[in-house]
Each structure stands twice: as structure tokens, then as C-alpha cells.
Amino acid sequence: MPFYARFELLLQLTGRFERTYAPIAPNALPHLSILINASVANVRLAFLASSRYRTLAKPQMRLSVRNRCSTLALECEFSNFTAVIQTIIRPHLAMLSKGCIHRMPPILLLGQAGVGKTQFTRELKKILSVPSLFLDMAAETNGSGLGGSSVFWANASPGKLFEQLAWGSGSIPVANPLVILDEVDKVNSSQYNPLASLYSLLEVETASRFQDQSVPDVFLDLSKVRFILTANDQAQIPAPLLDRVRTFHIERPSAEGMRKIAQRIFEPILFEYDLELSPVLPAAVLDDIPRLGPRELKTRLEAAIAIAILDNQSELNLASWRQTDCGGGLRARVMGFV
To answer: What is the CATH number of domain 104-242?
Structure first.
């Protein structure tokens, strides 16, 4: 057996993760050699050995009537996302309910912090019944998160998108997962642009033959992947990226919308800690909520719940709620000396 063939077999059997030098081919010149990263080779071999195809995930509610009910409920809870639901989500679900292979257009949710963008994507994931991948783009310093790292580097590895499509990352791999790219306006692109791979991923033609840099000879059809981008400042987003997405400006929730958000945040907190408090927020507390943002709201609700439990209350009353309003923090107890 030629040495290069024995080397590939060795990679399959041992799974070593180290630098290894091997001849290019039997007829290569003696002084020619290439650097092969064993971990990347194993990824390639394992992927090629698996099935070449991934199924398209479908919503649990297949009937168009039920899909309409689910989007109406979503619109009721997120009234400031009505344009997104009516323009993108509802038509997409309608096409899926007809058995069509439909690509959801990539969208950008633009709005100030705390308007509910992250919460909306979580609820949308439940309706779509699809695996998801969340990337905090503010923490990305290069493009390896999306497109993998080049085989030029000894520690080359596949990107998270490749892993999602190939292995499923804890769930059954599908061809149309939901990919959420958070805070794309805060990327650090001083040297390596984390958004570089995104330009080809958002175009159908190029996404249908996408190559992860760590496995350049493997082509992936990512044309059915659903992308949702979020950002606060449109001025910080490159124009070519804006040309590839549908942009929706998300306004602050209405007073009634904030009351619904408060109730939706309150109940899971009680469930998570198994607390014996009434799951319904009193009207007096709800009337004070619309002036807050969702992030501050959650922080204050958690603090008010703790105060209510400490005082052995059966429900979160207005007194406990008001104790959390002290310049953004809890009221401090004064300690003095005589």
C-alpha cells in the first residue's frame, strides 16, 4: 500500500490531532511535502462517510390554519414585530404548509437594545420547529466562526455553521436551520473580517456551493439556511451586507406590549426556581412597567421576586416592586456607628 494511502488510513484509525508531513503523491519529487492537519482530515473523512443529504425541517403545525394561528399569537405577543411577521414569517410558513421548498429571505432586525429582538427569535424558533445556531458577532474576531479557518494554519478547524449542518450540534442535522447572528454592527474587523463569509452565504447562487475553509474540497448547499441578523446601529453595518438582507426597524414595545412582556418574563422565573408565588402580576405592578425597557424589567422582576420570597408573600405586591427602584438598584440599608 502506498505511503499516502496508509497515512489516510492511519488518520481514520487513530484520530490523532497533530502536525504530520506526508508526500503529495507517489510520483511527487522527494523534497515536496505538504502540511496535513490530522484533525481536519478526520473531519473531512467522517463527513464524506456520512450521508450526503440533510432533510428540510418542517414546522410542527403543518396545516395552514394552525400556522396562521401561531403567527397571530406571535404577533399578539410581539406587536412591534408585526411587519416582520406579516411580510416574512407568515408567507414563509404558508409556502411550507403547501409542501414547497421555500427559502426564507435573510432579515435584519434593527432597533435599540431591549426591544425584544432576542426574545422574538427564540419564540420564532419554537414555531419553525428547527435547530438553531446563535453567534454573538461582537465576540468574533475573525471569520472562522462562520467559514472555518484555513488549512494554511496548523490548527485549522471547521466553522460552527459547517458543524451545525454536518453533525447537528446536539440535534438532528437539517438543511435549513435557523442561524441568528447577534450584534452584527459591533464586529471587530480591524484585521480579519468576521462577516467575510456572510456575503456569499446570503446569496442563493453562492450559498448553494459554499466551502468551509478547513475542508475546501467539500461543497455544501446552504441556500435554504434561514438567517436572522440583529443590530442597534445601521450606520455601522457595511452597505454590501445591507443590500443582501431585508431590514426591519423595530420600535420600542407599546405600553400594553410591555405588560405582556412582563408577564411572559415573570412566569418562567417562578418555574425555574420552583417558587410558590402567584403567577399573575398584580395590576398595580403592571401599571408601573411600561416606562421600563425589557432588560431592566427582567432585572427588577428577579429582585422583586427575591424580596417577596424573603417577606413570605403569596404574590409579588407593589411594595416589593417599588423597593427595586432605587436609581437602578436595590435600596441600600444604612449602617452607622454610635
So the answer is: 3.40.50.300
